[in-house]
Design brief:
One of its GO terms (molecular function) is oxidoreductase activity. Belongs to the short-chain dehydrogenases/reductases (SDR) family. With about 240 residues, the protein is of the alpha/beta class. Helices cover about 40% and strands about 15% of the residues. A four-stranded parallel β-sheet has the order 3-2-1-5, covered by helices on one side. A two-stranded parallel sheet has the order 4-6. Strands 7-8 form a two-stranded parallel sheet. α2 links the parallel β2 and β3. α1 crosses α7 and α3 runs parallel beside α4. The longest helix is centred in the middle third of the chain and has 21 residues.
Length: about 240
């Protein structure tokens, strides 16, 4: 079986959720160095402590990164040096005038709120891919009502993935599209949202971040896949 031995893995958004699960999986797969990045230093410190508590081989480092700041992303890409894999799971939920998360996305009421999604989820990885250095050799399909903005981001990322796979080859570029996850994305509405959408999912449940992390680990360890989109959605697209 393939491992990540002697590899350096960077996880932007690695302090929680899918990103944290990917960081654990990378260490379990014998990655030599795992670098997690987030905008909140205290969350980074907490995540590093939790990762080290697993007593897995491999070095763990943390970096503060404002993924909304293109110059900061560029500086980060240069500072981390040559790496083997970059995973981007960071993504902001747009805020309303009271500072609360705007969910569902059909509630987005301004260009500024909508652009906030693209700033982190699209332009962040775009800038990072443009400036990163790699070691050599390495929802959009079925949008629900009211999810136009979310599906637009996904579709844009699919195009970006294929384009970067061509431009950066032989560096490999792949896209993982998570479905409904049982984490804290929906805040106090989590249980209600999971109950409502579980009936529309073939497996009748939300996914765990660790299950989604398996897809990220697969595309890192399989050296013969690039330019592909992998949907981790419990069979939602089949119904």
């Amino acid at each position: 079986m393939a491992t990540l031995q002697n590899k350096t893995v960077v996880v932007v958004g690695g302090s929680s959720g899918i990103g944290f699960a990917v960081a654990i999986g990378a260490l379990q797969s014998l990655a030599s160095v795992v670098i997690i990045a987030s905008s909140n230093k205290s969350r980074i410190d907490d995540a590093i402590a939790r990762l080290k508590a697993y007593n897995l081989p491999g070095e763990v480092r943390g970096e503060v990164l404002d993924a909304k700041d293109s110059n900061a992303v560029k500086t980060f890409a240069v500072a981390i040096g040559t790496v083997d894999h970059i995973v981007w799971t960071s993504g902001d939920v747009p805020k309303d005038e009271h500072g609360s998360g705007v969910l569902p996305y059909s509630n987005v009421g301004s260009v500024d709120q909508g652009q906030g999604i693209f700033t982190v989820r699209f332009w962040g990885p775009f800038i990072l891919a443009k400036h990163a250095k790699f070691h050599p050799g390495l929802v959009g399909q079925r949008p629900a009502p009211g999810s136009t903005l979310a599906s637009s981001v996904t579709t844009a990322l699919e195009g970006l993935t294929r384009g970067l796979a061509l431009d950066l080859a032989p560096v490999r570029v792949n896209l993982i599209c998570p479905g409904l996850l049982t984490d804290n994305m929906f805040g106090e509405r989590k249980e209600q949202v999971i109950k409502t959408y579980s009936e529309k999912i073939l497996l009748k449940r939300g996914g765990d971040p660790s299950e989604c992390a398996e897809a990220y680990l697969f595309v890192m360890k399989c050296g013969y896949i690039t330019g592909q989109t992998i949907n981790i959605e419990g069979g939602y697209l089949l119904l």
